[in-house]
Write a structure and sequence with these properties.
The protein has eight helices and no strands. The chain is flat and about 50 Å long. The protein starts with 10 loop residues before the first helix and ends with a helix.
Length: 155
């Protein structure tokens, strides 16, 4: 196995510049569209995710006549749900609250910023994008970042 030489690495090559606007859109699509689908495929419900007793374990066994592809999809979906919850837990408190209210409790943006005592402007221009970018940093199953073209090719 090749040895890593950290002296020859730079921050730019290890962490290319993120296109924040595109990453926010990508994470929003993931949390609003893909997460609910993965919850359904995994056999869970959104109300189970809000429960403090959620342990990431399947609640029912796949049927005996299920195909291998179906079993793999279900196992992958379970991992997506588990890793999503872990990523949200690793965000700072304010961002975690926003992500929890929007995507686990399924509150509207309006209810979220009112509940958290934020102005509409600061919520949409500062806090929500910050929460989505933190989620992208913390989610470890797939890379949800979208990188700027110029910095991506430098890697």
């Amino acid at each position: 196995m090749a040895e890593l030489n950290f002296d020859e690495m730079s921050m730019g090559s290890l962490f290319p510049e993120v296109d924040e606007r595109s990453t926010v859109q990508n994470v929003t699509h993931f949390l609003a569209v893909m997460l609910p689908k993965m919850v359904r495929v995994s056999g869970q419900s959104m109300s189970e995710l809000r429960s403090p007793s959620y342990d990431g374990m399947p609640k029912s066994q796949p049927s005996g006549n299920a195909t291998d592809a179906r079993i793999v999809r279900r196992l992958y979906a379970e991992q997506v749900v588990k890793r999503t919850l872990e990523a949200i837990k690793h965000c700072d408190k304010d961002c975690r609250n926003i992500l929890d209210e929007l995507y686990l409790q399924e509150l509207s943006d309006t209810m979220c910023f009112m509940d958290l005592g934020l102005s509409e402007s600061s919520y949409f221009h500062v806090w929500k994008p910050k929460a989505l970018l933190q989620f992208a940093d913390c989610y470890m199953l797939d890379d949800l970042h979208i990188f700027k073209k110029s910095s991506f090719y430098a890697v």
